[in-house]
Amino acid sequence: MIPEEDFCCSGVENRVQSVGLALEELLVTAQKQDCLTVGIYESAQLLNADPDCVVLCVLAADDEGDVALQIHFTLLQSFCCDSGITILRVSGGQRLQRLLRAVDTNRNQEERSDLHCMLVTNPQADHCRLQEVGNYCQERRRVDPWVPELVLQER
């Protein structure tokens, strides 16, 4: 590999890691501020009631084999696209679970375990992190029209 390629690849890796950290910080901040809706059904209810308050939809990409879940995702993605809501698919559900469990121990176990869909509902929730994640999604959509994906790194 020539040095330029090595630099290019490491630059992309650094960008993805930076966006992953930004997403983690955004979700934790939103949860602390009670601006994070977690769960497929809870998210669908919020999108039906007040889609204008939603600024980011995060969908888990870990359960690709669950057909019913994929149908829900398709419907949520369609609704979010029609409403102009940024969507991001994320692999690394265990990392998300550890992050969000550490922040909020008052929720019951069932509520914490459904991290298949999360909605950030406050445009002021760590705005610079929201902007970084949003910019990444826009950049990825220019390259590939599918929903952007991000892999969260285990630490």
**N-to-C SSE string, H for helix and E for strand:** HEHEHEHHEHE
Radius of gyration: 16 Å
Strand residue percentage: 5-15%
Helical proportion, percent range: 55-70%
Per DSSP E runs of 2 or more residues, the count of β-strands stands at 5
Question: What do the pLDDT scores average to?
Answer: 84
Main beta-sheet annotation: 5 strands, mixed
Explain what you see:
The protein is of the alpha/beta class and 155 residues long. Helix content is 58%, strand content 14%. The protein has 6 helices and 5 strands; from the N terminus they run αβαβαβααβαβ. The chain has helices at residues 3-32, 40-49, 67-83, 93-103, 109-113, 127-143, and strands at 36-38, 56-60, 86-91, 117-120, 149-151. A 5-stranded mixed sheet has the order 1-4-2-3-5, sandwiched between helices. The chain is globular and about 40 Å long. The two termini are 28 Å apart. Mean pLDDT is 84; it is low at 1-8 and 108-112.
